[in-house]
């Protein structure tokens, strides 16, 4: 990555917030105004098999300004925070080299933390130990393996939900391979954050407004072909604990295709679970700022790309003015 001249910091923008808060529309508006390149910071939008259900930008939107890290992994892959961080730093460097401002847009808190705070350099366990951990997960189930991890590594186990099989297996393999738990490693060596000055826009819409938007979007997804998308995903016969198989809406629509649930019940459940997830996202962002207070703009409505043009223009202009003023204040440059 190209470094800025001594004494100056390159600027990177962050557009963060819960699912369905209008991040993509805002990032696109910002990119057009400041000459930006949008870099995906959402752990589900990296999968190419799920354009509809993960609400990735459309092909037309991606053609307007440069986009990076959208739909770059097959569903059979298991994207990690470390993988994303390396790709994101390279994408930021490419944006700066092209004279553009990197705009990190998404809702995955751990990705933002790896970007702004750095990441623990945890060794990769040997393939045999990875397979052993996945075998135990399949044999015992997540809650039982979590209970065993609690005996072996209580500090790490306390940070994991007993139903989160992927992260439990990951913690088990790290403890088995290295003799130390994930919590221990996180307190040690750290891969550095992106060398940039961050300016953040945090979207925090009211709960009722967000719930209504989630319901509308899920109905739109169904109309756009979400069921066919899940059917194609199931045809790959992938392990159920892969991230893409657990994306919001996938388990519920898969149950419909298997005849285990009605479409109405599946939609209601998917909307409810997504709403619960957005609450956790909002809590995370409230406690983990992505930029200094003076470089953070909090917008507490939903940024609606389809709302009245004049209203959206006013809001967008206010945010754009904030960004430009903060760049000027810090003598930052793309």
UniProtKB/TrEMBL annotation:
Q: Which domain of life is it from?
A: Bacteria
Q: Which residues form a coiled coil?
A: none
Positions of region (Interaction with substrate tRNA): 42-45, 166-170
Under the heading Pfam families, the entry gives: IPPT
| Residues that bind substrate | 19-24
Please provide, alphabetically and separated by semicolons, the GO molecular function terms listed in this UniProt record. ATP binding; tRNA dimethylallyltransferase activity
Extract the Gene3D superfamilies matched here.
1.10.20.140, P-loop containing nucleotide triphosphate hydrolases
Site described as Interaction with substrate tRNA, positions?
108, 130
Cofactor(s) for this UniProt protein? Mg(2+)
Residues where ATP binds: 17-24
**What chemistry does it catalyse, as a reaction equation?**
adenosine(37) in tRNA + dimethylallyl diphosphate = N(6)-dimethylallyladenosine(37) in tRNA + diphosphate
Record keywords: ATP-binding, Magnesium, Nucleotide-binding, Transferase, tRNA processing
Annotated EC: 2.5.1.75
Q: Give a GO biological-process term.
A: tRNA modification
Q: Which InterPro entries match?
A: Dimethylallyltransferase, IPT, P-loop_NTPase
Q: State the family it belongs to.
A: Belongs to the IPP transferase family.
UniProt xrefs under NCBIfam families: miaA
Under the subunit heading, UniProt states: Monomer.
The protein's job, in short, is: Catalyzes the transfer of a dimethylallyl group onto the adenine at position 37 in tRNAs that read codons beginning with uridine, leading to the formation of N6-(dimethylallyl)adenosine (i(6)A).
The name under which this protein is listed is tRNA dimethylallyltransferase
Q: Which organism is it from?
A: Komagataeibacter sucrofermentans
Record gene name: miaA
């Amino acid at each position: 990555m190209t470094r800025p001249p001594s004494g100056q910091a390159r600027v990177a923008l962050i557009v963060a917030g819960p699912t369905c808060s209008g991040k993509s529309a805002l990032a696109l508006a910002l990119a057009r105004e400041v000459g930006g390149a949008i870099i995906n910071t959402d752990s589900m939008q990296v999968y190419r098999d799920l354009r509809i259900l993960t609400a990735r930008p459309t092909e037309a939107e991606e053609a307007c300004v440069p986009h990076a890290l959208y739909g770059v992994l097959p569903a059979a892959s298991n994207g990690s925070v470390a993988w994303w961080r390396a790709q994101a730093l390279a994408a930021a460097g490419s944006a700066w080299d092209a004279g553009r401002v990197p705009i990190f847009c998404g809702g995955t808190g751990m990705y933002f933390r790896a970007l702004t705070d750095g990441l623990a350099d945890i060794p990769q366990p040997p393939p045999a130990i990875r397979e052993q951990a996945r075998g135990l997960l399949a044999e015992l189930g997540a809650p039982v393996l979590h209970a065993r991890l609690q005996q072996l590594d209580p500090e790490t186990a306390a940070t994991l939900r007993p139903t989160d099989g992927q992260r439990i297996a990951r913690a088990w393999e790290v403890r088995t391979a290295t003799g130390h738990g994930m919590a221990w490693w996180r307190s040690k060596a750290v891969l550095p954050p992106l060398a940039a000055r961050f300016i953040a826009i945090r979207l925090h819409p009211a709960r009722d407004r967000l719930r209504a938007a989630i319901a509308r979007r899920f109905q739109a997804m169904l109309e756009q072909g979400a069921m066919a998308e899940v059917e194609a995903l199931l045809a790959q016969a992938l392990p159920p604990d892969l991230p893409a198989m657990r994306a919001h809406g996938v388990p519920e629509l898969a149950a419909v295709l298997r005849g285990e649930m009605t479409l109405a019940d599946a939609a209601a459940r998917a909307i409810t679970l997504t709403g619960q997830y957005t609450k956790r996202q909002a809590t995370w962002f409230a406690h983990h700022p992505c930029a200094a207070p003076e470089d953070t703009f909090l917008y507490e409505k939903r940024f609606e790309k389809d709302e009245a043009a004049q209203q959206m223009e006013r809001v967008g202009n206010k945010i754009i003015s904030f960004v430009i003023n903060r760049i000027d204040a810090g003598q930052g440059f793309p």
